[in-house]
Fold this sequence. Notes:
Elements: E1 16-22, H1 30-43, E2 44-55, H2 67-78, H3 89-94, E3 101-109, H4 115-139, H5 143-159, E4 163-171, E5 182-186
Parallel strand pairs: 1-2, 1-5
Antiparallel strand pairs: 2-4, 3-4
Helix pairs in contact: 2-4, 4-5
Amino acid sequence: MLANTLEDLPFPDETFDYVFQRFMVLAFTPQDWRSAVNELVRLTNLDGWVELFELACAPERAPADMIAFHGIVTLCTTKGIDHTEIWRLKPLLMAHNFHNVESDYISCPLGWGGRVGEMHANNIHLAYLALGPVVTPVLGVDQDEYSIIVQRNGRWIELGRGSLPLWAVFERFYNFIFSRNYILTSYSDYNPSYSS
């Protein structure tokens, strides 16, 4: 089933024991976050869990050359998307009378630390390439110049010990029994038009 988290999902209130959403940091405006969290909370049983898992756009041990990254952030800003909104997800859940809201992050290695680091670096590289057609106008470069920028970023990943934080915010009930209903993994099909 395809459904949009920003619209009424086709399930009754309190349907799921566990609701999970991830990686919407570069897709949601602040208002979209409020709408999405409202919908996810609506679907969660009173004794269930809500978990939001996001990539923080705050590279650790970042290279001096962050041209592609800054182009993506600039593009998002022009669309009303604030990548720092993820740091406000905990209060957003608490506003729904969730009392056991926890948050934490791990630093996920980029290109080092074994398979996870390699996969993470590959995902970031592919994301940069996929965003090329919409980021190049923001940066004022052509596709060939952008490819060089992405290659330089890849060399930093190979040489450095950089990482990106993965941020999790969740409501945990300690008497939780995972058995009653179903699981909804929520991914928004929201795809803002990045064309000018």
